[in-house]
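ARCHIVE CARD
Drawer: 12
Card no.: 0347
Subject: one protein chain, sequence and derived structure
Cross-reference: see card 0346
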Amino acid sequence: MNIAIIGAGLAGLSCALTLEKHGYSPDIFEKRKKVGDRPLIGEAMSPLLHRPIDDAIKYLSETHDIHLKPTTNIQKIFVHSPNETSFLEGHLGYTNKRGKDKNSYERQLAEQVKSPIHLKSKSNMKRSRKNTPTWSWLLEILLTRKASNPSIQRLKLRLQVQ
């Protein structure tokens, strides 16, 4: 069975890892030049916000065999009001990076994936028009690859008709 995943973000890469664990090798198609090619942002993961899971990193590792290394552990959160200041203390979650950083979650997942990630090359960018939909680019790739599987042949035919 041939499987295509559109997008090498967190969802696409997590899907690929899950499929690989079940014996499938999907092809991942990313429209950007590299995985994580988006503005660098920081995020916080906290059990205060993600109930009922107390430790999201541990949950992903133990339940789904997806391993991520957060940037830092959150040990203390200060709460300020006009008249008082207080804080919460303990294991309160993690911070992580997304985007272009070499330690971003996207880059960490890409290192774990064994399936091929097809990045958009300059030649494809030059040939594609500004308003060309993503499925046209996928169709071009499907049409240029050899596919003996009948379901891929039907997919090609269906995409050509549309």
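Annotation on reverse: The two ends are 23 Å apart (CA to CA). Residues 10-21 form the longest helix (12 residues).
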